């Protein structure tokens, strides 16, 4: 596969779920044989994961992956980052600048591991990226602006970001250093690197209850701006984004950043999903709950359910894989909350009834996911986020395990009959089957779900699974 073809494939299929590279800037240095080691590794990582996103070029990705990993490991062994177990950089006079391209390269390799290797290997690789992120100080790049917002939103001014950029930004060409130091596009690339790492960490909770490794309280970085504005490369950014805490917890200041661009919205919803996973773990730690614990549970539960419902109300754009995945993720959060409430032992009838009341919203969410899958173009499955199969598997497991819901007369589109549930399972399995062409995780989940559904059928379901064409009859 030629370098030009790799780059085109990257921006067509990888960039939609990891939009952290400025396209025009990349092409300006991509053909430079004297690019810095960090950029060389990033270029190699971009072409490596691009090969994984195409069935025709999957085989050559293993060689490219090994080469890219050697580059990054060599750079990590350099003295500027110290020994692997160190958590602080050396003093400024003893270290070179941390290149955000290195972090980007490690993140792309982690996604390659999700697509082509194993979940365990992906977590190991992701930890390399997270460590460099903490060492770089990028998570606090807008801390001065954040502090100004706490008193009065209007007091927040851009100069604090410029100050940070002058400290952290590095240049390939000394003559252009003054220009690059005040370049907002470079600042936005770093922000997007931060949030790409955060998104990977939060979505990892979908796999085997993996705990998060990055604390949201430590992120003092503005949310990413819209993709159109980022790629336009105008002299000055039009919008000034807010912070995660504002968008997540519904502070008054959040009104100034609504509606969120697709990437920022995905970050917020992924953080909400991770909170739902934490909520589930807390509920399962010591059942049955005491009365005070149950009270705290339902306060958290109702807040999360309301936030998930609001996240599902965003405008759907079929052409944007990020928006499609985000909406499915929001519906998956609703399903998770329902499963958590119904899997918990309750001491009172009121609490049991409250748990049962969660089911209508959960079945409605499952129905909406199936509708999205039905209407999504086939090419969209090659551009979906690598963790897309996990969200689909969660919905599939819910429908397979739960009894059909009989809605009230006002119930509209809920999955309410056995036949509709079977049709929904077929659609979800077909989505996994299409994704499995470029995603090993999808193939593994498909195999597991087919076995689970087949077992459910043999245990007394009226349905029968046809292994021949992968459908229910």
UniProtKB/TrEMBL annotation:
Keyword terms: DNA-binding, Metal-binding, Nucleus, Transcription, Transcription regulation
GO CC list: nucleus
Pfam family, one: Fungal_trans
MF GO annotations: DNA binding; DNA-binding transcription factor activity, RNA polymerase II-specific; zinc ion binding
Cellular location(s): Nucleus
Entry superkingdom: Eukaryota
Xylanolytic transcriptional activator regulatory domain: residues covered: 9-241
InterPro entries in the record: TF_fung, XnlR_reg_dom
Keyword Metal-binding: yes
GO biological process: DNA-templated transcription
Keyword flag Nucleus: yes
Name assigned to this protein: Xylanolytic transcriptional activator regulatory domain-containing protein
UniProt lineage: Eukaryota, Fungi, Dikarya, Ascomycota, Pezizomycotina
């Amino acid at each position: 596969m030629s370098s030009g073809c790799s780059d085109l494939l990257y921006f067509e299929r990888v960039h939609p779920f990891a939009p952290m590279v400025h396209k025009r800037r990349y092409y300006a240095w991509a053909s430079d044989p004297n690019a810095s080691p960090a950029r060389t590794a990033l270029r190699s990582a971009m072409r490596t994961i691009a090969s994984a996103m195409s069935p025709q070029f999957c085989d050559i990705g293993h060689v490219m992956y090994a080469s890219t990993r050697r580059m990054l490991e060599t750079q990590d062994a350099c003295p500027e980052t110290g020994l692997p177990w160190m958590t602080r950089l050396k003093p400024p006079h003893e270290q070179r600048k941390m290149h955000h391209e290195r972090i980007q390269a490690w993140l792309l390799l982690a996604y390659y591991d999700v697509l082509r290797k194993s979940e365990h290997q992906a977590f190991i690789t992701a930890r390399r990226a997270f460590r460099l992120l903490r060492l770089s100080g990028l998570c606090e790049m807008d801390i001065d602006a954040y502090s100004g917002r706490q008193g009065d939103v209007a007091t927040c001014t851009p100069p604090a970001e410029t100050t940070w950029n002058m400290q952290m930004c590095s240049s390939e060409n000394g003559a252009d250093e003054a220009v690059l130091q005040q370049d907002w596009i470079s600042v936005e690339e770093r922000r997007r690197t931060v949030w790409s790492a955060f998104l990977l960490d939060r979505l990892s909770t979908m796999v085997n209850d993996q705990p998060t490794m990055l604390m949201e309280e430590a992120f003092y970085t503005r949310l990413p701006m819209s993709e159109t504005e980022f790629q336009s490369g105008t002299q000055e950014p039009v919008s000034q984004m807010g912070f995660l805490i504002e968008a997540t917890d519904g502070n008054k200041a959040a009104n100034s950043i609504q509606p969120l661009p697709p990437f920022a919205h995905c970050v917020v919803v992924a953080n909400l999903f991770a909170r739902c996973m934490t909520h589930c773990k807390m509920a399962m730690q010591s059942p049955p709950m005491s009365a005070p614990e149950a009270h705290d549970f339902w306060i958290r539960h109702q807040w999360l359910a309301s936030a998930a419902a609001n996240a599902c109300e965003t405008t759907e754009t079929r052409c944007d894989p990020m928006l499609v995945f985000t909406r499915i993720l929001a519906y998956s959060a609703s399903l998770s909350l329902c499963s958590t409430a119904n899997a918990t032992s309750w001491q009172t009838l009121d609490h049991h009834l409250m748990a049962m009341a969660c089911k209508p919203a959960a079945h409605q969410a499952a129905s909406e996911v199936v509708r999205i899958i039905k209407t999504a173009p086939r090419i969209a499955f090659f551009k979906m986020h690598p963790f897309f199969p996990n969200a689909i598997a969660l919905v599939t497991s819910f429908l397979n395990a739960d009894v059909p819901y009989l809605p009230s007369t006002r119930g509209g589109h809920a999955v309410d009959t056995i036949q509709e549930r079977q049709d929904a399972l077929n659609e979800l399995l077909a989505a996994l089957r299409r994704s499995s062409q470029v995603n090993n995780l999808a193939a593994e989940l498909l195999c597991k779900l087919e076995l689970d559904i087949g077992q459910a059928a043999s245990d007394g379901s009226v349905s029968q699974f046809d292994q021949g064409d992968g459908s229910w009859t």
